[in-house]
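Crash report, auto-generated. Payload:
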Amino acid sequence: MNCENCETQLLDLLYGELEATTAGQVRAHLDGCASCRAASEKLGSARRIVRQLPLESPPARVHAAIMARAQAHVRGEVVVAPPRGKAHAESEEPQSPVQRFMAWLGGFVLGPQVAMAMVLMLMVGVGLYYLPGLRTSRNVPGGAIVNADPGDEAGPSAAIQPAEPLDLRLDTRTNRLHSGTETVAARNTRTGDDRDEAQDVVEGPLPEQFAATLAALPQTNEARAGDLEAQAGEVIVDGLNDASEGAELALAPGEAFGVDRTAAARPAGARARDQQALAFDVASADSDAPAVGMQRNAPPTAARTAREPIAEERSVREQLAQAEPPPAPPRLTVSAPIAMAPPTTPSASAPAPSAPSRAAAPGRPSAMAGGPRASGGGSESAGMASGVGSSASAPASTAPQGQAQSPLLAAAGLHGVARNQARTSSLREAISGYESLISRYPGYDRATEAMLELAELYRRTGDLARARSWLSRAERAPAYAARARQQRFRVDEMDRARRAVPAAASTSSD
Amino acid sequence: MVKLDPAAVGDEELLRRFNDGRADAFETLLSRYEKPLFNFILRHVSERTRAEEIMQDAFLRVIERSKEFKGESKFSTWLYTIARNLCIDESRKMVFRRHKSLDAQLGGDDGEGPALVERTAGSAPAVDRTAIARELKPLISAAIAALPEEQREVFLMREIQNMPFKDIAAIVGVPENTVKSRMRYALERLQEALAEYADYVGELEE
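Recovered output after restart:
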């Protein structure tokens, strides 16, 4: 007999429900165990106290009434049903727990507490539903509930309109993105000389796919889109030459790239077009270009710190960082129109490539970025297509080293677009994107990688011959040889599987 | 014909005789159970009149359904199941009635009265067993009334009716071990509540 056994049998011992043998064992344990003895005495003490409470006797009349009914029952008289009584009280056997629970629940059906609780719950529920803050505002990570666009000025989010291309131009010396259309248009209004304006533009607007990618970036990452939307606010452009340009520009949620929107300098129509068709344009690092200073003189107060770049954007920035020794991060700007800007001052921080400026070469179509679009108006896609055509005609391989970054940027953009297409849309589009990338930018530093990816796409489409041909091209680069061999193995495997299936089919048919 | 001592005849046999037309058999049953059952009900509903009515109802149901009793369970279990269900029904009604407690007479209108110790200390020479028992009774009643319902009913059936734990388990509808646990908790609570009077109880038992 241990303490555990003893404890379970203390009550039985106390009430005499133990057999003599077991009772003796328990008593023997109690003699030797102080803690069990204490527990037993505690129970016994309570029992002794309670037994002092005398039992009440029922009145004799109740006894008489019951006996009268019993004798009537014996005589066979019909016994009137008792005045009170519940159906379940008549059940002979004890009820099951479920029955008793249901009976208990039933007792609350009309209880006032239950009714009050229901009313309160209803009130709280209705109140929560009609709380405006919970229904319309977005809960941002900081915990505050803000309305991303209190004035409802932003319009439809670019996150849900990815098809609209961006027309952006990146000035590598100022590290600013500009709307190509607006820059050219603004200059045209001032100078009327397209050729001069074009000199600071080394590379034309990037192909349509890249612009589409930029526009679609928020869409590819929903969390990012939500972040941008939450951050979209109002940016005040100050330091402008024209007094009328101090207007507030509202950044639409999808325009978080810091698009150069000089709204007041241009007619409303051109402004609207710019917002819809912004081309990514890369400005030259040429310090000799006379127009460069105009952009550099954009008021610094208008500069807007860049938000955290997205992956594709980051790759662009990395290349920019390589081109520009100063470590200052690229800034997204909302810059003033440059019409009244002072003449060029060469940048001290600009790299000093001795190569002649390709951008300074005459004959480059100045309107290739914004011109067709600015005049085209309704035919956005046509304007973009012509922009693509003109930019494609500029062979990057002929560019000197100083300007080589621009094709690299364009190629990187195309590469990103093609990858995105491979993930999201059809393989055919992705393949054509890759092929145009490789053919157009043979000097692209990740061309071999693109070839490998292209080969993989061909393999997935089943065109094993082309896959092999691209792989063999890729294998020439030692760094990618191993990866190319792996892919070639997969291609061979697929080839074998293909041959095996018809063979098996023919044998089975035999 | 040898007439058996009624005290030696089992409950079930008495009920069978009653069904055979012998009212005296039922009177024996009634005499056996009316006092403990009345106290069981009284501690449940805490009102004497209601307790009397419920006890009467319980026995009248036994009379009405005596022929339905097949002897598959004990008579005591059957009777207490009926009485307990009537008490539960009554308790539901009483929740909103706020009846004055049967045992609230001690404190009077101003709430709690002085403790037994305080009231007996000044008249120590005059203390006798009757006086102590009289003073102790409401305290014990209050302590029992303060028990949780599930513990109190187990305690009452065990102490008042001396009902085996197995039968209590059948009436309450829980395992026997659960009944024992409740009984143990009840005794421990009562002991804690009434520990200061244990010495007086010792005097009473001498």
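Post-recovery validation: The CA atoms of residues 239 and 299 of chain A lie 6 Å apart.
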